Every structure is written in structure tokens, then in C-alpha cells.
Amino acid sequence: MKIATFNINGIKARAQALPDWLDEAQPDVVLLQEIKSVDEAFPREIFEERGYNVETHGQKSFNGVAILSKLPLEDVSRGLPGDDSDEQARWIEATVVGKQAIRICGLYLPNGNPVELEADGSPVAGGKYAYKLAWMERLKARAQALLAEEMPALMAGDYNIIPQAEDAKRPEAWIEDALHRPESRAAFQRIVNLGFTEAFRARHQGPGQYSFWDYQAGAWNRDDGIRIDHFLLTPQAADLLLDCRIDKDVRGREKPSDHVPVWVELDN
Predict the structure, then answer these.
(1) What crossing angle do the helices spanning 128-149 and 182-192 adopt, rounded to 10°?
(2) Contact call for residues 161 and 8 (beta carbons, < 8 A)
(3) Fewer Cβ neighbours under 10 Å: the N or C end of the chain?
(4) CA-CA-CA-CA torsion sign (252, 21, 66, 191)
(5) Is 131 part of the annotated catalytic residue set?
(6) Among residues 28, 158, 229, 258, which one is catalytic?
(7) Distance CA 248, CA 238 (A)
(8) Phi, psi dihedral angles at 77 (to 5 degrees)
């Protein structure tokens, strides 16, 4: 079973690039982020004619996540638990069944910039950085619940987290950024430490492996990238892991997203 995550940065802008990649890569399940579309306007037909079941959790102009699956999707849930007042469309999950059932969770974690801090260094209440860290606490709670169910499960998507210095071409440029601040990285590590496997690092070590290149300042041509799209696997899912790769070349194609697909292959 090949499961991919791809922040497409607008479904309308990627109306040709995304289907082209699907036809080439043939993933069984795809988790999309930043569809930037309400559910009613999402072009389902493009994907349904390719054999995908489509579930979306959309929002006008911003955010938005979706699942495309060649297998039936069961028990679909939208919205990260823990804050009923949160209206941002950043979380969707469902169960897919291969040889066994796997809980698939797609996420678009808040960026968190600009970082606004009080004099004591704590995030300003109501600010974007405070929202990011609070969202990550809710993510940790959902992660604990997934572990307690003791079934294969994964949480994948655009985490907007640069976990280690080696995950950036120029780590010094990101020190004060919400993606790489110590509080952000520590929150991510606390989730991993619950018992998750970070799939890419379980298969590939070393620097120079990125999933995002900014549109500005020739970042792609200089390979000035960062790795912020991740798969976290429960122990039961990690036991099924065969491979995890980044489809880097997609960034160099016509009308690309600033992210590229990352995928895992599971023995399922």
C-alpha cells in the first residue's frame, strides 16, 4: 500500500500538475493539504475518474485538507479534537482496509508566524505562535488516543516543523522562525517520543533531503530547502514500513507547488 502526503498549495492552481503526478506515481491513498477550496467546489470528478474515493474538509481560500483513496474510506472524521471553537480546516482522518485496517490521519499544522512573545518569552495569547503550540498539544492528545487503540495508524502531512538542523539547507536562517524555534521542535519531539516512528528518518539519514522550497529568491535552483512534511507511524504501522521517499523532481515541473509529495510504502 502506497500512501502519500502532498501540500498542493491550491487545488485550482494544481489542477493539471496533481493529476499528472497521480497518473505517474499511482499512490493508493493521498493526503492533501492546502486545497484552498470549500467542499462543494473541490473538483472531485478529476480524481473519481481515476478510481479514487474523495473526502474533503475544506475552507474558502485558506487551509483545507482531503483524502483520496482507491480503497473504501470508513469512519471519516473532520477536525482535530480538543477545541470546538477552532474553525480552521486542518485535520481529516479515516480508516482504509488492505490486508488489515489502518487509521489514516491527514494534517496541516499551523505555520505559527509571526512569532509574538511576551517579555518572559512566552507566546502572546491569541497570537499565531500560541495557536500553533496549542494545536500541537491537541495533536499530542490525539496521538495518545491513537496509540491506545493499538492498531496501525499514521499521522501525515505538512507539519510546518523543521525537526533538526540537518533538515534545512541554511538552519541558521530559521532559528527564530516558528518552524524551527526550540518550543516548536520540542513539541514535535514530545509527540514522537510517545512511541511514534518518523518514517523518513527510519529509512534515510543525513542532510540535503527536503520537501519544501520557497518560490522566492531562487530557492529551488539553489536547493535551499527544508523538510517539513512528515509521516509519524504507530508501532503497529511501523512494523509494516517498507520504504519512505520524497518525490523531489516534482518541484521542477510546470506550475509546481512549493512542496513535493512524500510517500510511504507499507506491507499491507
Answers:
(1) 10
(2) no
(3) C
(4) negative
(5) no
(6) 158
(7) 23
(8) -135, 140
Q: Which of 108, 129, 131, 210 is catalytic?
A: 108
CA dihedral 237, 240, 242, 246 (to 10 degrees): -20
Task: Please give the model's pTM, rounded to 2 decimal places.
Answer: 0.98
Spell 69-88 as b/e; 16+ CB within 10 A means b: bbbebeeeebbbeeeeebeb
224 is catalytic: no
Compute the distance between CA of residue 138 and CA of residue 195 in angstroms, rounded to an integer.
Answer: 17
Rg (CA), the chain: 17
Residue 198: beta bridge partners?
Answer: 232
d(CA 202, CA 123): 33
User: From CA 259, how far away is CA 176, in angstroms rounded?
Assistant: 22
pLDDT tens, the chain, 268 aa long = 999 999 999 999 999 999 999 999 999 999 999 999 999 999 999 999 999 999 999 999 999 999 999 999 999 999 999 999 999 999 999 999 988 999 999 999 999 999 999 999 999 999 999 999 999 999 999 999 999 999 999 999 999 999 999 999 999 999 999 999 999 999 999 999 999 999 999 999 999 999 999 999 899 999 999 999 999 999 999 999 999 999 999 999 999 999 999 999 999 9
Strand ranges of the sheet holding 53-57, from the earlier edge strand across to the other edge: 53-57, 65-69, 29-33, 2-7, 262-266, 241-246
- Give domain 2-266's CATH superfamily: Endonuclease/exonuclease/phosphatase (3.60.10.10)
- Residue reference for cell 474553525: 87
Question: Collapsing DSSP states into helix, strand and coil, what is residue 262?
Answer: strand
| Alpha carbon 233 to chain centroid, angstroms | 13
